[in-house]
Amino acid sequence: MVCFQIFFTHDGKGWGLRTLEQLPAGAFVCECVGEILTNMEQEERNNNATSRSNCQAHLQCSEKGLKDEEALCLDATFSGICFHIFFTHDGKGWGLRTLECCDGNLVDVPVTIESPDRHYYHIAFFTSRVVKPMEELTWDYRIDFDDDTYPIEAFKCLCGSPFCRGASSSKKRKKRGRK
Ligand SMILES: C[S@@+](CC[C@H](N)C(=O)[O-])C[C@H]1O[C@@H](n2cnc3c(N)ncnc32)[C@H](O)[C@@H]1O
């Protein structure tokens, strides 16, 4: 079992999670567990200040044109195992299902359990490279920072990557009156 530590990041991203030991590339880190919501249910939850969530992950995000009942998301706000809620964001690319194009040191992998259908209800996190002891665990949230219609208001990304999508959209944020 991997030993983690929750710590307060030094660069303004709030709480983060780091590993106390070196992890090899491809190591299992944790599973993301929560309630399964449709996109509409997720949006309703996020429009409500008391249930607004930071601990959600999309399940079928790579498929286009899904019906609401097929476009599902895992939400660990009220129940679930939420180690992943401490993963901070670090990312430059899109469509991340490969290990090479991701800035973050974790990748999320949909896992089929019990049923061979195309709906994935389990997401597991694995390291995309060797992660050193005390290194922060980061994952590309795949937020479209330029999308005004995205149900969760995007934060100003402080990952510091020259390829960061969140930092480059700061002009648009100012236009919308966000800091
Ligand atoms: C899943 S939570 C991660 C835990 C969070 N840092 C905390 O203290 O609870 C996601 C939130 O962390 C912050 N965050 C994560 N990555 C960030 C980044 N690269 N730049 C700025 N804020 C970040 C944002 O406030 C974001 O909404």
Automatic annotation (TrEMBL):
**Record carries keyword Chaperone:** no
- Superkingdom per UniProt: Eukaryota
UniProt GO BP: methylation
Residue ranges of domain Post-SET in the record? 153-169
Pfam family for this entry, one: SET
Q: Is the keyword Methyltransferase in the record?
A: yes
Signal sequence, renumbered to the chain? none
A single MF term (Gene Ontology):
methyltransferase activity
Start and end of every SET domain? Answer: 2-142
Show the Gene3D superfamilies listed in the entry: SET domain
Keywords assigned = Methyltransferase, S-adenosyl-L-methionine, Transferase
Q: What is this protein called?
A: SET domain-containing protein
